[in-house]
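Inputs:
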Amino acid sequence: MSGNSFGKIFKLTTFGESHGKAIGCIIDGVPAGLAINIDDIQLELDRRRPGQSKLVTQRKEGDKVELLSGIFDGKSTGTPISMVIYNQDAKSKDYSHIADKFRPSHADFTYQEKYGIRDYRGGGRSSARETAARVAAGAIAKQFLKQSGIQVFSWVSAVGTMSLDKPLESLDLTRIESNPVRCPDPETAAAMENYILQTKKQGDTIGGRVSGLITGLPSGLGAPVFDKLHAILGQAMLSINACKGFEYGSGFAGTKMKGSDHNDAFYKDENDQVKTRSNFSGGIQGGLSNGMDVNFNLAFKPVATIVQDQESVDESGNTATVSGKGRHDPCVVPRAVPIVDAMAALVIADFLLRKRMDQA
Amino acid sequence: MSGNSFGKIFKLTTFGESHGKAIGCIIDGVPAGLAINIDDIQLELDRRRPGQSKLVTQRKEGDKVELLSGIFDGKSTGTPISMVIYNQDAKSKDYSHIADKFRPSHADFTYQEKYGIRDYRGGGRSSARETAARVAAGAIAKQFLKQSGIQVFSWVSAVGTMSLDKPLESLDLTRIESNPVRCPDPETAAAMENYILQTKKQGDTIGGRVSGLITGLPSGLGAPVFDKLHAILGQAMLSINACKGFEYGSGFAGTKMKGSDHNDAFYKDENDQVKTRSNFSGGIQGGLSNGMDVNFNLAFKPVATIVQDQESVDESGNTATVSGKGRHDPCVVPRAVPIVDAMAALVIADFLLRKRMDQA
Amino acid sequence: MSGNSFGKIFKLTTFGESHGKAIGCIIDGVPAGLAINIDDIQLELDRRRPGQSKLVTQRKEGDKVELLSGIFDGKSTGTPISMVIYNQDAKSKDYSHIADKFRPSHADFTYQEKYGIRDYRGGGRSSARETAARVAAGAIAKQFLKQSGIQVFSWVSAVGTMSLDKPLESLDLTRIESNPVRCPDPETAAAMENYILQTKKQGDTIGGRVSGLITGLPSGLGAPVFDKLHAILGQAMLSINACKGFEYGSGFAGTKMKGSDHNDAFYKDENDQVKTRSNFSGGIQGGLSNGMDVNFNLAFKPVATIVQDQESVDESGNTATVSGKGRHDPCVVPRAVPIVDAMAALVIADFLLRKRMDQA
Amino acid sequence: MSGNSFGKIFKLTTFGESHGKAIGCIIDGVPAGLAINIDDIQLELDRRRPGQSKLVTQRKEGDKVELLSGIFDGKSTGTPISMVIYNQDAKSKDYSHIADKFRPSHADFTYQEKYGIRDYRGGGRSSARETAARVAAGAIAKQFLKQSGIQVFSWVSAVGTMSLDKPLESLDLTRIESNPVRCPDPETAAAMENYILQTKKQGDTIGGRVSGLITGLPSGLGAPVFDKLHAILGQAMLSINACKGFEYGSGFAGTKMKGSDHNDAFYKDENDQVKTRSNFSGGIQGGLSNGMDVNFNLAFKPVATIVQDQESVDESGNTATVSGKGRHDPCVVPRAVPIVDAMAALVIADFLLRKRMDQA
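Outputs:
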């Protein structure tokens, strides 16, 4: 049974393989009358697109999005919005050497086991190329959030052992896009860039961490029990290729705290808004937003494709040697940023609509 | 829109408030012909039940489960299985003092904001009492997994700053239930127990970490893209009260590794099974199980109810002082263990059924 | 995979077998703050309850509904509402004679084929007893509709070959409950009652037709394409035991009309409301309500249990003779009326909530 | 909230407007390894395509389907199959005259009411053009059914007052495509064709009836309670544009029968298969298939677009006159046939997969 849809009301379904004819999506449930700016969608796709800097794969994809339905006179009509991106630079021959071999820590083996058949070219459906469809959809979600004054941000907060240790309050999030690493602190960004390039030279790859922030949320967003805001946010983030961990608010560090330090005292601010003095809750209590900013961290493993010989097996179970040849990123986190943004926006858009049913 | 259901095929819907008439659930989608042992369900509930040791709340709940439907001659019939647990020891008067005040880092404020009305007694729906229904359902899921030789384990691997640092391979998981902390290492367990009791004496609480392991999985379990095995496992775990983080395989530590160290080389073992030499993937590649054990860690925050005065506001927005009076746990992690087991079992049961549709 | 849930937002899941411990349901998605009158729920159950007149089965069920969750201070809290009805008069011994035989035109054979096991007592899950849970849920849906001035009506419009041929406009729908047949025309009702009793004396059963009307609907209710208002209404009605057909508006008779006669001309009434001069559309155009009344007809087959010997087979495939012994209705349509009402109310309640997401 | 998806496992989502850039769909949940014949998909689209005979609209649409994903080496891979059909002959100018007027018995008014905006060109999303996507998807479903020896048939059994009165057993269903009316009896077909052409000459339209048959079904297909096989089949059929009624088995005529005549006696045939002597059940008992053929009838209203002046209102509520100008069918039923086939195939494909979860 498929897992290609996300969201209950603002619902995204993606399709497409890395080296197939096209990738794309249907977003069903976008309310009617929303002004849709196509340039803003393309802008987000350009952020995710490969070939932007030395840090990322040089695969050349124009990634031009085409809108097929659901929009009339520049506005959503309430009907499904379909978008398609035709694959242009799909060098399938790059992958013939792995047609019957399983690349370590890739999805080759597990797809073969599950389906008995797989489109091995560039990882097929398991390729991060699929996330372009998410980014396009997330761009529409962002336009919906804008109406409510909600913003999503994410940035690289660690690369390998090098981390950004400044407090959130001191960061200038307008600078995320000012450097190829997508770290809002220019000095750290420069060091990280160097670190990544050195790793690349070694034919190796490195992991990292992305941090996220959602501002302007109303209180009461999310749902009790299984669809807690952070649970769905967690699913959304963990569904991004290479993501190995999710924490929000105080996260894993908070496990070491006492309740008396961890509890967020309520007070009323000068605008008669209920606020909390600290925010170890990460803006979420009982699975529902409390009006404070939502913050979270994501762990990304090192990219599995390395330009080194590796031990593996082939489809017949014989020992085989695999070596990366395609064009790949030495570090995935800078390109993960627009995907994280997109998933965060999709989560919030869905809950904003779900919130409309809270009261009779 | 509600979030009270979990699973797509083996589907659980829970109901009930902490101090309402009853809590319970419907599990829809249990295949017919499964032998259901009611004693095993009760056994799991007894593990979660309060009042078992000095470490946990002394609320006395018999938590006797009653099966209302879906079983005939000791076997599932393919129709919905409904279970109910009547609330017995619901001391509602304990909560009148917070009828119009918001306890810090609880769900009081956010539920009020969302619904405009809330059952304040014991946290109502937001209370962890709801998880008893999950544990009952998980017990049935476990019986389904047993058929396929799959087992789920979880245990306390850290309490506050005190952690169990032995390698997974060295742990004897049959000892998890041998102590009230549910830590498989007796020495560490004793130290943790002491630590928790000291925290309790201070009227304070402490967080901790639960680790989990799933063994015996077939390969190809999970779904691509949004329903990756670890993404749904993450949602399941993050939906447990007080859970603040989820990581699997190498998790956050893996972000610091190089690809050449992190990749799990494939080989064929003596039984012609494809295995990996290391397991940084945590048994999951491309969102699908690869046949290795699945492992994960969960962060739990310190319990929010502390026996100390705390700054807050009331429903009118006026400053108020809140102090815990009810019966609560100083540390939630020991009681979280059966809930983690249950959620893991539910995730796997659902994917086992979903796997039946993989091939034509 | 189960089919025990109905509705996307105002979502009902029922459980229970005819002669099991209890039947009941969870309604998830009832918005918070709705005043819930328990007496009104019981009233609807009493309408459906057997033993009310000579026309229906004499099985004595108190059918007392018990509310387990989701309501606080007389109002819905936005959390799942669970209701249970314990089975009291379950004479299981009546059914031992069919433990291994398949009653003709019942669900015995198909359940056995599907599940390999079945609770044969009184039809188990396939019994119309399950509809009591629908009626309880429908009663809550009705209370939600009342807020918006929407009403649902249904009545018996034909029994066997005897039909009520007066135009809809001439019927006094307040008289539906004035007779055991639930036909709003007293004379026709008396004749139908006689007809049913004669059929009963012959140890036989007879089919019939139920007609429905929904008034006070806003325009734009329903959804395009697959969830057209009449398509979901059709599913709802066809899911009622013994229902064999559904038509709305001009229905099957309309197939014989010309477009020039069938089209409903628009005009603006004295209150500046857009109305249609005729209503062959049955209040629905393009799957969405147009503000006119929605009307529909349902076909119900004759009850399958007859007090006559019938040819059949047993579980081993041997020829067997089956004869009805339990207590059953000679004609199902009078008791179908409150069930039709309930399903109509559930359909509309769900779409009313879905409508909240139409515009940005 | 959207209604653009159908099916729970073999799940279709369609997109596209009549005069937008393209229409298309994603089918998610097609099991891997199914051989997909693209020519067979095109063949079904050609059956539905306008311009085939004098009976149907002369709009020229190549309706060439393009497969974008989910297929590799001629087989399904278990990933979403996306298909797109670009709109070629979209004469939008034909519709400018109704940009702000509501055509009687069309969806213009209700879409405007629901969404506050509508793509008025050719009915936009409400146009039957959307069904081309269903037909493409249904063609894949048919290929899946073929594996199990299941076939779906549908044909025109009435046009206006002219009906095919021969018994089902006497019909040669291989002749359905032998004439433009799609009636398997050549004589009746010729008369119907004449009848339709006469109606066309009058600038008028006429309704009709489509009958369907599904053969080769295993027993136990369908689901209890709300997802009864006939309930979902009913929803599927009622979701087809202009469909006003659905009945299966004995249908509305069966309401006049006695139980003793209507019950289908079981017997064992010469191959030790359990069969029924009659089939008033229409192959479905308790919502589950019993292994006999499933049969059903559908009512279609006369096409709403007529070449005559009609009274209506415009968006401002002023009285307006509307007259059909576009290219339209005088009778929709011949072209409905491939759509009915497609929906039937989709229903059965979904239940075939759902059936895999019945037993433990």
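Remarks. Residues 110 and 197 of chain A are 31 Å apart (CA to CA). Chain A has one domain: 5-359.
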